[in-house]
Structure formats: structure tokens, C-alpha cells
Amino acid sequence: MASAWQSVLRVYQRTVDDGDKRTDPWPLVYSPVPVSLIFLVYLCVVRVGPRLMKHKQPVDLRVVLIIYNFAMVGLSAYMFYEFLVTAWLSSYSLLCQPVDYSSSPLALRMARVCWWFFFSKVVELSDTVFFILRKKNNQVTFLHVYHHGTMIFNWWAGVKYVAGGQSFFIGLVNTFVHIVMYSYYGLAAIGPDMQKYLWWKRYLTSLQLLQFLLFLLHTGYNLFTECDFPDAMNTVVFGYCVTLIILFSRFYYQSYLSKKQK
After folding, report:
1. Residue 39 lies in a domain
2. What is the pLDDT of residues 82-105, one digit of tens each?
3. Does residue 238 lie within any of the structural domains?
4. Which of 109, 129, 132, 200 is the most buried (most CB within 10 A)?
């Protein structure tokens, strides 16, 4: 038992010691413990929240949702700009870009926007809380919980080990998608009068699927070519994208194609 515990401690120590020394001092980065605790609290909320709300009236969050969603549009737009401009100024390659671990202004600028992107994934766990408080439990699907819960780990690892390089492509595309997505949710939160302008929800799901296909092609290309970017990270992203494509395709079929056939 003692030997097993010592092995766990050695793995943990290696995990925290092998990270990017620039990002280690930043909030939630040095150790996986804080993000793991956030994940456990999140799962508890998903499990217990609907039960606590069962005999209560839905909470009116209209104003909160309008502010939250448009704030997320602003944050996503800021991150999109930072990813795009920093990559441009750094002469990043779209196909193969190693991580610059130096403390140059541009390298640190890219690392900082990677951290903000990771932190935004923590903030986005609020989406689930809002669904539960509004008793929209049908929205708290396996896809929703899986996607939100795993993204915080994916991007914790991204900031911990590869804050920059090829990681910028995921941040760039995803922040653009989130500008569109949170704009939709912000408009929808205004009220029923906006519904006639929100006919493009189906295309939002298509856009989400398209981004995962782009990530799959991007990481797949780097897995089978010589590129000084960790294959382990590309392998994880590749496998993760496969699961998301399957789940989002299933959601798209059930939400649009299956209903149309009926």
C-alpha cells in the first residue's frame, strides 16, 4: 500500500514539475488538484441540482443571462483578436508550429491568451448551472456535461505544457464559434420577440461540427508529419475530436434530420 502511494506521489510530482515554468505561477495552473476539485463540484451540481429544484419554481434569470451571454461574446472576441494578432505578429505556421517557451513579449502574450481561454472554459460551467436553475434539465445531456467537464482538463493541460504553438489554432477557431454561439444565446435570452430572428440555430450546430472536423484534420496532419509539437497532445486532441464529432452528429440527427423525417 505504501509503495502504491509513493508511486502516485511520484507521478503527481512529475506532473507538476514538468510543466511550462512561465505559466506555473498563474491561477489554477501549477497543480491538477484545483481543476479536479472544480470538476467534482460540477458533477455534484449536475447530480444534486435537479433534485433540489424539483419542487421549486424555475428561477427567472433573464437579465443575468443577457449580461452573461454578451459578456462571453466580449471575452470570446477579445481572445479571438489576441490569438489572431499574436500568431500573425509571431509569423506562426498554420500547419506546424512548435511552442515558443521563451519569455519574449509575443511568446508570453500567446501564453496569456491560452490561459484566458482555459479560464473561459471554467466560466462556461455556469451554462449548466443556469439550465438547472431554470429547470431546463433536458438541456443537461451527456453531450453537454461531457463537453463542458472535459474541456477544463484539456485546456489545463494545454496551458500547463503547451501554451502556444499549435494550440493557437484550436483557440482561434473555437473563440470565433463562441462569438456566434453566445450571440445566439444572448439574443434568445431577450425574449420570444427575438425568435423570428433566430432561424439559424441549425447552422450554429453545423458550425460546431465543422470546427471539430477542422481540429481533427489539423491534429491528424501533425501526427503523420514531422512537427516539433508533442505527439501525445495531438493524439489526445485527435481522439477527443472523434468523440465530439460522434456526439454532435448524433445530436444534429436527432434535433433536425429525425424530426424532419417524422
Report:
1. no
2. 999 999 999 999 889 999 999 999
3. yes
4. 132
